[in-house]
Design a protein that fits this description.
Blueprint (H helix, E strand, L loop, with lengths): L12 E3 L2 E3 L3 E3 L11 H13 L4 E8 L12 E2 L6 H12 L4 E7 L15 E2 L3 E2 L9 E4 L2 H20 L4 E6 L5 H6 L14 H4 L1 H14 L4 E7 L11 H10 L6 E5 L3 H4 L12 H4 L10 E3 L6 H9 L5 E4 L1 H5 L3 H6 L14 H7 L33 E5 L3 H13 L2 E5 L8 H5 L10 H11 L4 E4 L6 H7 L3 E4 L3 E3 L20 E2 L1 H5 L7 E6 L5 H11 L3 E5 L15 H10 L3 E3 L2 E6 L3 E6 L5 E5 L2 E5 L2 E3 L2 H8 L4 H4 L3 E4 L9 H14 L22
């Protein structure tokens, strides 16, 4: 069943005192759950185990209360009280033969300690480096405190063993971990035996790993995660120094876990990072050690995975985002079902769960983090209910996901698409600069639907309420998408803004339809996600001189949560876009816009031959409301339910649409739960007085 080309991916490998059953290594990744939602996080990891991963790790786990990253919600292993929730996770990881790993983190200059109120400790006294620029500084560890820190790591290692973990990953990458802070000249300014030369800067890692091996080395393998290149020049831990470090300490850990620079560098979205983007940085490091090397690179192709191992570049394939998009990647490759893999699109919506301190989502896999909360399994649907068929009106991401999930439940499904091709907004957006990988949302579902005998797709089929009533479907799912507003209503303007009738006004829909203006073009971005920046790129490539005006302090402000804001800004500057921050658009004239300062209201004008308004969207809900008005006719037409969801109900990112479609499919014909909570949650146990 398995293609022999991929046999190498399923060879066992020795990791310290343990043997991993294959080369699939789910690297530590966040999920927005952490200590607040431990059962949800545990079940999510357990699904990975079912999917065939050889090694599965927790996310970053804070190992001591003197270094924590509130408001972000990660796991904690501060005391014995934390062991039971982590044991539950380890048990779930090991149910199907995977090795269970925990990542221990001491955040140093990345830990503001807003909850514990402890003074942050780091190799050298420096300001805390956080996403929120907290006005706090860390002080330098004394030598006695370094000994304390070594002991705290040992205590955490013993607790990890008691919780049932097989591996410990020591976090020294992405600028977040104390090991990187010691190794980098940018953060280690010490003049004692822990600073200066690479040998001295390596001392702390050597001491901690030696201590931990003495304490738990017979039971637990030790992985050291270090950055491949800090990308800050001579001041930082460069790729050359990484190679020297590995050669100098070749047998230090049981596994070398190598990841690129900052988190933004390592987990860059598909707009800016190709699959296996870190190959050049990691190639050749294997020559310096006999220990296994794992690396990442948003691996989605089994051919690329096999190549990385056959070439001697890596020993194990590290995946975070691809393991979220499809937890069953190893099993599908093993069973010869490569075409069934839900490939990660690299949109980084999963990361926004961590950045917004909420439960994570995945555009491709709407069951992510709902495995325990709602009982959703990525490969198994609940049984069909009492009705037999569903008409899905619209084939965007919400409609396609609903149809795919409904068909697996056993319903007969008809999809009516008004246009000549399926995909809705994804089909349009995938043609924009850098977004081609997003087309996988449609490609995967189109292929899967083609395999289903109980699904029919009708193109060029715009339906009105009268037609729907005549068809006689038992259930009608309205997933007709949304349209970008032309009148500027969004956050700055809650009513239509003043616009001269002679002004040339465009929306994202116009540009995606091929109507791209040239000359002096103002892009007014009051949406604040990717669309404004992407359209500015499109306009420049078409020959326009672009000014992007936004009321926010950042271009594409919300993309800070997807780790791409800085790259977007740099890209636009390099392309010659004039970026105007902290200013809105008060009105649009025939040949200019009047811009007002967000803070003072002072105005100035910008020449504009055309204006692209990236504001809010209006749901295409006319058919739904007409059907609701004629609800008295449903019974005679054989209709049991009419439901609107996705962008047609309330516009949002694509992940919101696939989630909405999946939820509709799961809940069809379900019992009315009334006012009950539609998901499970955990609450904090009250302490004994």
């Amino acid at each position: 069943m398995r293609d022999p080309r991929y046999d190498i991916l399923f060879e066992p490998i020795q990791l310290g005192p343990h043997t991993a059953k294959n080369r699939f290594y789910q690297v530590p990744h966040c999920n927005g759950g952490g200590y607040r939602d431990p059962s949800a996080a545990a079940e999510m990891r357990g699904i990975k185990a079912q999917g065939g991963w050889g090694v599965i790790f927790t996310e970053q786990t804070e190992m001591h209360h003197t270094s924590e990253i509130t408001p972000f919600i990660e796991l904690r292993l501060w005391e014995d009280k934390d062991i039971p929730q982590l044991r539950k996770m380890a048990d779930k990881m090991k149910e199907h033969g995977a090795l269970a790993g925990i990542q221990l983190a001491y955040s140093g200059i990345n830990g503001p300690n807003l909850y514990s109120k402890e003074v942050p400790l780091a190799p050298s006294a420096l300001p805390i480096r956080t996403f929120t620029n907290d006005p706090v500084q860390a002080r330098a560890l004394s030598k006695s405190e370094i000994k304390d820190l070594r002991r705290w790591f040992v205590n955490a290692a013993i607790r990890s063993k008691d919780a049932g973990f097989d591996l410990i990953n020591l976090y020294g990458a992405h600028g977040f971990g104390i090991f990187q802070h010691f190794l980098s000249r940018g953060t280690n300014h010490r003049t004692d035996e822990y600073g200066g030369s690479l040998e001295n800067r390596s001392r702390f890692a050597n001491e901690v790993i030696a201590d931990m091996k003495d304490a738990v080395g017979d039971k637990i393998a030790i992985a050291l995660r270090v950055s491949l290149d800090e990308t800050i020049g001579d001041l930082g831990f460069s790729n050359q120094e990484v190679r020297e470090f590995v050669e100098m300490n070749s047998n230090l850990p049981d596994i070398w876990d190598l990841a690129q620079g900052t988190w933004e560098d390592c987990s860059g979205p598909s707009r800016f990072k190709e699959e296996a983007a870190q190959e050049e940085l990691v190639r050749g490091i294997k020559e310096f050690t006999d220990k296994p090397i794992v690396g990442v690179g948003r691996f989605t192709s089994p051919d690329v995975m096999a190549k990385m191992i056959k070439s001697g570049t890596l020993d194990m394939i590290g995946c975070a985002r691809p393991s979220i998009a499809d937890p069953f990647i190893p099993k599908k490759i093993d069973e010869g079902r490569v075409e069934d893999i839900r490939e990660c699109i690299g949109c980084n919506i999963c990361i926004t769960g961590d950045m917004t301190m909420s439960i994570s989502r995945c555009t491709q896999n709407p069951t992510f983090m709902e495995e325990w909360r709602k009982g959703w399994h990525p490969e198994i649907m609940n049984a069909k209910g009492d009705s037999n068929n569903v008409l899905v009106v619209g084939s965007g991401p919400a409609g396609l996901e609903a149809a795919w999930a409904l068909s697996r439940r056993g319903y007969d499904v008809a999809i009516a698409e008004a246009k000549t091709e399926i995909g809705g907004r994804v089909t349009r957006e995938r043609k924009l600069p850098g977004l081609s990988a997003w087309g996988r949302v449609v490609d995967y579902r189109e292929y899967q639907l083609q395999q289903r005998a109980n699904v029919d797709i009708y193109l060029d089929s715009e339906l009105d309420a009268e037609s729907i009533l005549e068809f006689g479907f038992e259930n009608v799912a309205i997933a007709t998408g949304a349209t970008w507003r032309r009148d500027g209503v969004s956050r700055q303007h809650v009513v239509p803004m003043p616009m001269d009738a002679a002004a040339k006004i465009y929306t994202p829909d116009d540009l995606m339809a091929g109507n791209v203006p040239t000359g002096n073009v103002v892009v007014y971005d009051d949406d604040h996600y990717y669309m404004g920046g992407v359209l500015a790129e499109l306009l420049v490539k078409a020959g326009a001189k672009v000014t992007l005006i936004t009321p926010c302090a950042y271009v594409s402000d919300w993309s800070n949560n997807t780790l791409e804001q800085a790259t977007i800004h740099a890209r636009l500057v390099e392309m010659g876009v004039d970026i105007v921050l902290n200013r809105g658009v008060a009105s649009i004239a025939a040949d200019h816009v009047v811009s007002d300062c967000t803070y003072t209201g002072r105005t100035q004008t910008y020449a504009a031959d055309a204006v692209v308004v990236v504001a809010s969207r209006t749901g295409n809900d006319e058919v739904y409301h007409t059907l609701k008005e004629r609800e008295a006719e449903w019974a005679d037409a054989g209709i049991k339910s009419v439901k609107i969801f996705g962008d047609a109900e309330a516009a949002g990112p694509i992940a919101w649409s696939t989630y909405a479609g999946h939820r509709y499919a799961r809940e069809l014909d379900g019992a009315d739960i009334g006012d009950a909570l539609p998901f499970r949650r955990e609450i904090t146990e009250l302490a004994v007085d």
